[in-house]
Amino acid sequence: MTTPAPVRALLLSLAAAAACSRIPADDTGRAMPQGAQIREPVDPAPAVAAPCGGGRTMTVRFYDVGQGLSALVTLPDGRNVLVDAGDSPNRTGCGEACEVASTHLRASLRRDLAGRPIDLLWITHPHSDHAGGAPEILAEFAVRAYVDNGRDENGPEVQRARRAALARGVPVRVVDPDRRDLPLRPGPDVTVTPVVPPAWPPSCRHDANECSIGLRVDFCSSSVLLTGDAEHAEERLLDIGSPVSLLQIAHHGSDTSTSPALLARAHPRYAVISAGKPGVGLNREYCHPRALVVRRLTRVLGGPGQGAIEAFDGDRCDRAVPSDWIAVPASDRLWATERDGDVALVTTGDGTFRRER
User: Fold this and answer.
1) What would the CATH number be for the domain defined by 58-355?
2) In 3-state terms, what secondary structure has residue 69?
3) pTM of the model
C-alpha cells in the first residue's frame, strides 16, 4: 500500500529533526555531553634530540708533580689517557722533591683510576720531568699502550721507559710526523687527535722540547690541548685545529712558550700551568712560570680575578734573588699547580669546565 504524500512528508520532517538533535560522539564512539565541541586531532610534539654527551662527563686532572707534568684525562666512557709521567723519584740533583712528587702521583692515580687501566700512556718528549716517572707507572699500573715520539731512542729516559713497557707486555708505539696512528679506538662523542708538526724542525737536534708531540681531546663542544714542552713558534709546530676550551700551558709557563700567536689561534677559555714552587727542587734552575706569561694569559682568559700566582720577573734565573718572584694578579680561569696543588677540571661537553673539589 502506498503511503499518502502528506504522511510521507511528516515522517521525513521528524527524521531530520532527530538527526539535528543527536548527541555527538568522540573518536571512540562514546557520547559527548550536550554543547561539547568536537576538536580536530593534534599532532604529537616533535621529539627533542638528546644533548650531545648524554649527561656524561670528561675529567682532566693535572697532578702536582713539582717541576714536571702529568695529566690524566678520563674520557666519558671511562677510559683513561695519561699524558706524561712526571720525573724519576731518583733524579740526580732533585732529591726529596722528586721522591715526594712521584709518591704523590702514584697515590693519586691509585685513587682516581680505582683499579681501571691506563688505556694510553702518552709521553710528549724524552726529558726526565715528563718521561722519568714512566717506569714506576708501568711497574705499578695496568697500561694498555705506550707512545713516545721516537726521538733519542738511545737516551736513558727512553730506554728505561721502553724496557719497563716491554717487561709488562705493553705495546710500544711511535707517533711522529710520518706515523700518526693512535692506539686508541674512537668513542661516542669523543675524538682523540695527535698534534704533531708536519716535519721535525731543525732545532729538534739540540732541543727535545721542540719535538713535543701534543694531544687534543674533543668531547662534544669541550676540548683540551696538551702540549708538553713545545716552545718558540708553537703555532707553526703544532697544527691545533680549531680553538680549544682548555689549554695546558707549554714548558711550565716559560717565556719561550705560549706566544701571542698561539693564544690567538687556540683562544682558550681556561688554562693550567704545571710548575714547581719558587726555589723548590729543580725549579731553582728554571724559575717557572714567568710573570710575562701569567699576565699574557690573564688578558686572554678574561682579566684578573681574586687570586695571584707567584711568578718570576727577573732577568736571569741563574742570578735570581727573592725579590725577582712577585705575586701576579691572575685570571680565575687560570690555575697553577704550584699554587693550587692538583687541579681536576670537569666538563659535560658544553664548552665549559668547572673545578672539582
Assistant:
1) 3.60.15.10
2) coil
3) 0.85
